[in-house]
Structures are given as C-alpha cells and as structure tokens.
Amino acid sequence: MASYNISNRNRKDKEEKPFSFFLLFPVIAVLAIIPLITFYYEYETKLDQFEWYTGNAKTADFFLRYKTVALIIISIYMVFAVIYMVLGEERKFAWDKKLIPLLAYAVISFISAIASKYSYFSFNGIYEQFEPVWILIGYFIIVYYCFFIFQGETVLRRTMKWFIAGISVMAALGLSQAFHHDFLRTEFGQKLISPEGGLEFKFEIGRAYLTLYNPNYVGFYATLIVPLLVALIFTTKKIWSRIGYGFLAVSLVIILFSSQSRAGVVTIILSLLLMLICMRKVFIKNWKITVTAVAVFAVAFIGINVLNQNILIDRMKSMFSTAPEVHVLESIVTNDDNVTIRYNGNTVVFKTEQDEYGNDIFTVEDSTGTPVTYNYSEESTSYIIDDARFPFTFASVRAKDFYGFSVTIDGQPWYFSNLMKANNKTYYALGAGMALMKLTEQEKSLDFLENHYHFANGRGYIWARTLPLLKKYFFLGSGPETFVIAFPNNDLVGLYNSWHQNEIVTKPHCMYLQTAVQTGVPSLIAMLIFFILYIINSMSIYWKNSYEGYLPKVGVAIFTSSIGYMILALTNDSCVATSPIFYALIGIGLGINYRLKKDIEKTQKNTDTTDTNKVNIEKQA
Fold first, then answer.
1. What angle do CA 92, 93, 97 make, to 5 degrees?
2. What is the pTM of this model?
3. 352 forms bridges with which residues in the sheet?
4. Rounded to whole angstroms, how far apart are CA atoms 196 and 97?
C-alpha cells in the first residue's frame, strides 16, 4: 500500500502570505480566551409564562452568557476580516464543497428561529443554555474562517503557541480543583467572577468543572485537546517542549478523571486508539514515549480513583448497567371532570363535589364505572381504599395556599384541585413551587427506554420523552434554544419514576436530539453530512500518510479529537462553553486537509509526469 510522504518540516511556503496578529486574534480568542470567560450575570428568565417553571423570575449565570456575547462579536469580526482579506489584501477566496451542508444547517437554523413560536428565546438565548441562533450561525462562520486561513504551517504554528497558553491556564485551574484547592472558591477567585463574592458552589470539592459550566463538558474539552497535545510531542525534538506538551496532556487526563465524566474517559480512549492506528508507524518508532504515556495514563486513573474513594471505577461500572424497571404508577391525567390514575395495569377515577358546607364528597370508580369502596380512618384522618388493586389513601386538603385533595400512592402524596381557578372547574395537579398544571397522557417511545429510565445516568427517561417530539417538530423544529419549552416538563409521573421530580429538564443530553428537536431533522441531516464528509476526507489523507511533516500530525490529531467529540455528543449537548473549540478545530482540520490534498495531488502529478517521461525516453532509446 502506498503512503503519502509530504514533508513540510522547516519550510515556509512561498505561496503563503503572512497573516497579521489581528487576523489570527479571532481564532485565538475562540480557542484560548473565550473558554476562560466567567462572570456574574443576572437576568430575567421570562419562563414564568409556563406552568412548569417554578424557579425565580430572576436568576444568575456565571459561565455562559458572556461567552455568548464574546462569540457573537468575534463572529462579526471574522466576517469583516474575510472581506478585508479578499478585497483589501487581494487574497484568493477559498471554498470547499464540504462546507455546503454546514451552511445549509446555519440557514435552516435561522429559518427555524424566525418560524418559532418562541422566537424571542431563539434570538436572545434561554435559561441555562445561551446558545441562540446567532451562535449556531457563528459556528459556520468559525469553521469557514479557520478553513480560509489555516492552510499553511507558519500560521498554524503561530496560533498553536497562543492555544497552548490558554490550555495552560485552564490546566492550572483544573488541577487546583482536582486536588481540592479550587482557585475559583478562594476569596480572590470569587471576586474575579462576582464583585460581591460569597458564592455557593454546587459541585463537590475535588470535582473538576474548569470554567465550562458543568463537569460533563470537561470531557468535551479533554477529548478535543489531549490528542492534539500528544501529536505535538512528535512535532518537535526539543526535550523541554516535549516535556511541556506531555505535562499538559497528563494534567488534562487527571482533570478529566476528577470531573467524573465517564463518557469523557471512554471517548478519549477511543480517540487515542484511533490516533494510534492512524499514526501506528510514528508510535512504533517512538515506542518509549508510547509506553510511558500509557503508564502515566494508568497511574493517573488509579491515583484519582483512590483519592476519591474508588468513585471512578464505581461510576464506570454503573455507566450502562441499568436493570429493567417496573413503574407501577403508569400515568395520571387531569381531565375536565375527573382525575384518572393508572396503576399496575388498573385504572381508578376520582371526582369531587362540595356540599353546602364546602366539604368534599368523593366519587371513586374503576375504568368500568364500578364504584371503588373506601373507608375513613380516624387515626390517619384520610380515606383508605379497600380494593387491593389500588393501595391508595386520599384526603381533603384545606390549606392557606391550596384547596383540593391529595392521593397518596406508595408513600408519595399527589395533590389535585378543581377549586383553585375562578370560573374553572377543570382538574389540575400541583407541581413543584405550588404550580398548577394539566397532566396529559404521554406518548410512549422505544420499549427499551420506557423500561430503562435510569439508563446512562438518567438519560433513558429524557430520551424516551424526546424521541416522540421529532414527529411534531420534524421540519423546522421548535426553534433554537426552545428544547426546555418543547419537552413535556409537566410529565410529573415520568419525572417521578425517573427520579427527576422537582427538576426542569432543560436539555436532552444528546447533541443530535437537541438539534433535531430545536432546528428540525433536516438540519440534523445537514450537520451529519458535514461530519461524514470531513471524516471520509480525513481518512483518505491520514490512513496512508507517513507523517513526516507538521501539518499531517496536527491534522490527524484534530481528526481523531473531532471523532471523540462526535461520539461524546451522543450523551451530551452542544454548549457555548466547548462547541466553539470543536468547530474552530474542525475548521482548522478542513484547512489542513485542503492543503495536504493539494500536495498529494501535486506529488502524484509529478510522479505521473516522471513516469511518462521515463517511458518516452525508453521508447526513443
């Protein structure tokens, strides 16, 4: 099998025009500066219009909002920079047809935002997300900009120095968190992100979260960065540079372990294995470095596991080992004239009327209309149903803020009323925060998910309720940023059975489902086509490459880290804290691929010309 030996070591391409710092700055900002932005931002959620939202009208954000603002500014900067380079510096406009699907995704997302019933959130961002349509369009701009300028070695080396600086700051912060001395929890650290200080942190001591909003996103960050650092080790012979890259890689592995992101651990292993296969000759040639790296990885895993009471191994064991579940409480529906409860395959119906003194008169029947008998218990001051099919108790409730009745099922009280709204006798259930909401029958999903709500750390339930939404929002979705609105957060029974009660599900924990619901299935298809084209293009280049130069090593690292990100996205959402890094790297990867492909074609052309000339000489002889 032939291999491509394209060496560009210590070579400055004569065709490569130098880029000023001001043209490199937006990429440096995306890779190294914006991920570090963390500052207090108070805002109105504007979600109190929905019955399921029971939080405060105002809340605070630290990790997302100002990243969003900075990315929008940077995206605009990139647009004008491209115009300047093409018109002002007369650089040749570059394009690759593989970018078309991503452009289609951006266009569909914009149309979805305009068409959305809740377009305010699509354009301005929403509670716990802040990834509005401007950011989705920005992802395309970032990819194109990086593709446009990163087609040479010099510009890539200059940018990598700044990227490494940003990684170093992030690693220092992560190590402080991993070893129980979180810099952000110090008095000085708190004042950097909030002028008033006195912050409360929801993550336990010793669990790394960096400045990425949630420990799960540490998995994204490490998956994107570690393969790149490993590749950079082989791009230099300077011992201190190799030690530096190695130290940063080990640091991020330690930080990943301390974040307890199980999916992140799995994907980084898969990414490095793919990189090992592609660069097999390089790793074999440098076997001492390879063996050392594997040993350090193992020691880091064991050390962090011991430091945190075996938590890594325990969490890895339970990752996908959920046993089948039985949900005896199947559904509760609040109808106009009754409350219907389905329990263990049987249905019971509750109705109430009030006598002249305001006391409740209950009617309890099964699904056939047959009365269900019950007796009053003086001891518990409640009614006990005699029918073995329904081991419930129920009672009238007259409190300061609630008039209605309660039904206790397996020790859990459920509250209902048709008295709380003037001129409205329909029944409502009482949710968290005293919210009155209608409960409806939920459309069922895949049998496996319905029977494994706790699969993948509780994602089974969320996926089970998300999949049916694809039919409703197939073409244009519900609108960017509106998953929390589209999701049935009034499914109190499902939330109870999956242990999500008193929570608001704001995201599906799957980037692909997130995309399909919010901007439609066609937008997801466009995104997937873009990913597939990049993968095919990369495999055609790196499988046969001999990795003699700088560009192939960095290019294959970006390729394998991107694969890891795409895999990890099966269990995590797109987030403004990490997704811009992914799109910047994949844009750089496309630029490198474009350059290498041209070099391959040039090499093959020269080879064919040489062979032709040789044949002609032989004929003449």
1. 135
2. 0.92
3. 362
4. 51
